[in-house]
Amino acid sequence: MNTTDGDLEHVVIVGAGVAGCHAARDLAADHDVTVLDRTGVAAEATGLSAGIVAPTLFYSDIPGVARHANAFFREFDGTHGFGFTERNRIDVMTDDELADARALTERLGDEGFPVSFLGSNEVTDRYSEFDFEGFAGAVLYEDTGWVDPYTYATALQSAAEARGAEFHLDSEVTDIDVENGTVVGVETDAGRVDADAVVIAAGWRTRDLLPDGVDVPIRPYRTQVVVLEPDEPLSERFPLGRIKSEHLYFRPEHNGDLLIGGGHHPVETPATASSDADESFRLEVADFVPGFIDGFGDAGFVNGWAGIDAASPDTRPIVDAPENAPAGLLVVTGFNGLGIMTSPVVGPTVRQRLTGTDAGFPTEPFAADRFERVDTSFEYVSTSEI
Ligand SMILES: Cc1cc2nc3c(=O)[nH]c(=O)nc-3n(C[C@H](O)[C@H](O)[C@H](O)COP(=O)(O)OP(=O)(O)OC[C@H]3O[C@@H](n4cnc5c(N)ncnc54)[C@H](O)[C@@H]3O)c2cc1C
């Protein structure tokens, strides 16, 4: 891993998605920070996100990361216009998944997380809207919730600006300038910007900006969402959830509609960052939901969209200097559809890589050298498998 020394003054961050905005907020405390984006804040994957926050599940093997992420959303709540909505989550299990679910529940309980297992009758006693026929029960998480992803990113931007960061939101970075093995700036369509360090947080486009001989194992994949309006608005205690066997997840909207996500698959070279949800995904949702949740017999289709995120071989982001990178170059990418809930690790990990300060949680899971080699044709693993 590369780290730069105390000469670090001006850091350029490429990309104003949630990763770039979080890095900017933390670095701006004691550095000059400039964020450059080709379009705008939250213009790509971030703004298209469902905003679900469930790090206890997705980082169950690294409790320090889950604790840090859970705490960040609560601490940031109520600042810079940001709001975190707390809501329980049920992860629905089939008979085949039962043993693993019980083991996970026990492990997380031992770590002090508010997680328990409910049999199918206990689930429907608590949430009578669901039909659990064919399911064995659910893991109940009582530390989950969601954010509006656009508001979250702009709140991080506002926090960064309050610390002196500058955002230039119509600046496409075309090249990274390197002299004598060290980053010295970036080229943009509006001219050159000097820098002592450059953090590339350009989502699935990150590889396009890497100098020759430097690469990271990420590949773009597409993921989809539809929003349905039920016969009656969902109650204010309707949970978030996931049906792992169906590769679908859901969360209520504040107005009582239901957002359902899924339909993930890798794509080779995306033409655009977003598009409509596929008809086949809409039909899959229309086929499943009315039999699983009451009140969707005459549901209306409100909206549907698809976005592109970056996948990595082990579903965890890369927040590090890649092998052979010039001094002062970091990448932050590969969030695998979990970039909102994982974003709290970005700032501290970037700071640790650049300045050596302790992040306060394990950062090895985000190291570039955890992969033996850079293979960009790896088999895509969906986080719906976790
Ligand atoms: C439909 C959908 C649902 C999702 N649901 C969830 C969820 O419920 N919970 C969760 O945690 N995560 C979710 N995610 C994943 C999450 O949104 C992403 O992991 C996260 O937003 C990635 O953030 P990022 O900053 O890495 O990338 P992005 O948000 O894609 O930001 C990259 C930025 O870089 C800019 N850029 C690219 N190239 C250049 C360049 N050359 N010069 C300047 N700027 C450049 C782009 O304009 C863009 O603004 C979802 C994603 C999608 C698509």
Automatic annotation (TrEMBL):
SUPFAM superfamilies: FAD/NAD(P)-binding domain. Gene3D superfamilies: D-Amino Acid Oxidase, subunit A, domain 2 (3.30.9.10), FAD/NAD(P)-binding domain (3.50.50.60). It holds the Pfam family DAO. GO terms for cellular component: cytoplasm. Residues 10-348 form the FAD dependent oxidoreductase domain. InterPro entries: FAD-dep_OxRdtase, FAD/NAD-bd_sf. This is Glycine/D-amino acid oxidase.
